[in-house]
Amino acid sequence: MSSTDTAPARNDGDTAEVGAGLDALDSVAAQRSSLGEVLRTKALPPLIGVLVVLALWQGAYSLHLTSSYKLPSPADVWRSLQDLWYQGTLFSIIWTSVWRGLSGFLLAVVIGTPIGLVVARVGPVRTAIGPVLQGLQSLPSVAWVPAAVIWLGINDSMMYAVILLGAVPSIANGLVAGIDQVPPLFLRAGRTLGATGLTGARHVLIPAALPGYLAGLKQGWAFSWRSLMAAELVASSPDLGRGLGRFLEDQREFSDMSGVLLGIVLILFVGIAIELLVFTPVERRVLRDRGLLASTK
Amino acid sequence: MTPALTTEADAPVLDSDGGAPAVRISHVHKSFGRPGAQTHVLDDITLDVAPGEFVTLLGASGCGKSTLLNLVAGLDKPSRGSIEVPGGRPALMFQEHALFPWLTAGKNIELALKLAGVPRPERRAEAERLLELVRLGGAYGKRVHELSGGMRQRVAMARALAQGSKVLLMDEPFAALDAITRDVLHDEITRIWAERQLSVLFVTHNVREAVRLAQRVVLLSSRPGRVAREWRIDLPQPRRIESSGVADLSIEITEELRGEIRRHVQH
């Protein structure tokens, strides 16, 4: 077969230029928005939301919809906060709970992660305890409080036990879900490159499962915090440090509604603050690097 | 590495019985499923790829071409027969780029270098060199999602080359690309094949692509996959996919391929 081609030959430089042109036409440049725009689009709407809630609250108070001991004004709650501040107990109350919550959560990560790995990768283990692990997620952890009190007494161990029972299943399940969603193509590509066994887990499986794992961690924190508040509310003992849940229950005993509302607001505030300060930045970073955030288009 | 060679390089068609082959596939059978209810996918495939040879495997769906490539890559074992790749684990490129989205383009290549045992201090420079080779010099720090489809396949090519193997297996690597990008990448793979003296086993269902690229086209029949016919192609490289030489041979091969497919109507 001899060449009877009429098509002119192409030179290498031509191909290079066409290739570069295509690359320029096709690639998407990631755009970062300016600080002003971020403030306007991300910070302003929630701020307005909070102001609207405060306005409705103040309106309900001013209209005397119910007696003021049942519904104190936002200013009353603000005064309760100031009292706590001047007593010098505000930070110790918050810190007691945050310390318990975070250290319990970290312990739950240390325990839940290997459980998740084993359940995800070992078939018989998955069949045996996978459904139980999922079912445990729908059990409100406050249900564990009476059992924990009988087993361990009213002390810090009991608090940690309740946190672990609440958070470990959701962390383990998050990891299982993350691993299940890893595209098989990545594992094949990893094996072709020579990443098998532990090397494969380290360089391919775990990084690929990271988004699901992070979602599990975030939910694990929410569960830790809720479980802890339930435990603090129910368990009362002078030996225990006074946390937010205890503060809330104390104010109820004094029938101090503005103190109760303050307690609720503080619990909510801490929960949201930890999520925004710790989890959201990490999650955003991971998703943005992978092009999974809408804002990077 | 002498880039000047590449454009006019009419890479030598090697004598297939001279010296050890880069890939030797001898009497390979592959079946899936339980004994008794087995699907016979590959039937007595014997095929050598000589060092520096570019072979395309052509066939319709169900001919087991991807299965065969997986066997050569060592991702699966043949039911019978043997496969030898004397140069060690071959590199494999997929239809999807399969780049890891948690790493930058450069780090994807460095991971392959690391797994191939390249010492840390040399990895960065080698990754940059490979990116230059696929003409993506500035893409080291780019994330996968920032690259176009064609650029991703180039990075995937660089990552495959980073494994250091002289044998490159390609499983329809350009099938998901638009025709213009595919045309450019045909030129590029031809250039890199000659420059690096690779032995390539390239799977496709696109007859013109097979003729455009290969020194030898191997047609597989379907269900079970058997070697139906082979063509040796002596047109000079780089060829153009729209040239008359490529078109003429494509017509001949397409007729044969259609004949193979027609055989299945009766069954």
TrEMBL record, chain A:
Leader sequence residues: none
GO biological process, one term: transmembrane transport
Positions of the ABC transmembrane type-1 domain: 94-278
UniProt membrane topology term: Multi-pass membrane protein
PROSITE patterns given in the database record: ABC_TM1
CDD domains: TM_PBP2 (cd06261)
Entry keyword set: Cell membrane, Membrane, Transmembrane, Transmembrane helix, Transport
Listed GO CC annotations: plasma membrane
Transmembrane segments: 105-123, 135-154, 160-179, 260-279
A Pfam family of this chain: BPD_transp_1
UniProt cross-references to SUPFAM superfamilies, sorted A to Z: MetI-like (SSF161098)
Source taxon at top rank: Bacteria
Cellular compartment(s): Cell membrane
Family: Belongs to the binding-protein-dependent transport system permease family.
PANTHER family: ALKANE SULFONATE ABC TRANSPORTER-RELATED, MEMBRANE SUBUNIT, TRANSPORT SYSTEM INTEGRAL MEMBRANE PROTEIN
Protein name: Sulfate ABC transporter permease
From TrEMBL, chain B:
Keyword ATP-binding attributed: yes
Keywords assigned by UniProt, alphabetized: ATP-binding, Nucleotide-binding, Transport
Domain ABC transporter: 23-247
GO molecular function: ATP binding; ATP hydrolysis activity
A Pfam family this chain is assigned to: ABC_tran
InterPro entries: AAA+_ATPase (IPR003593), ABC_transporter-like_ATP-bd (IPR003439), ABC_transporter-like_CS (IPR017871), ABC_transporter_ATP-bind (IPR050166), P-loop_NTPase (IPR027417)
Protein name per its UniProtKB record: ABC transporter ATP-binding protein
